[in-house]
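Protein in question kept underneath.
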Amino acid sequence: MQNGGGMIKFEAWEYKDKIVKYNMVYINREIFPNDNGRVMGYDNSHNFHHKHYFGKIYELDDFISYQELVQRFKNDIKEFIQW
């Protein structure tokens, strides 16, 4: 999906009705040319839940569920795009 000059990408791997790997990201090289243009996003690579924001990584101590994180992502990207 493209919007606001950037791109939104979602990836989720499911195993036995559970999301085991995920990645959701907003990419816009005009806003942030580093980190392959990743302005912000969430994923669970490296075996922990975390947020990327302008090249910095923050561990999510308050992770509840993948579904809740999708909603959080949608709220967070309002800073950059209009739905």
Q: What stands out?
A: The helical segments are 66-76. Residues 1-37+46-59 form one domain. The chain is about 15% helix and 45% strand. The first helix runs from residue 66 to 76.
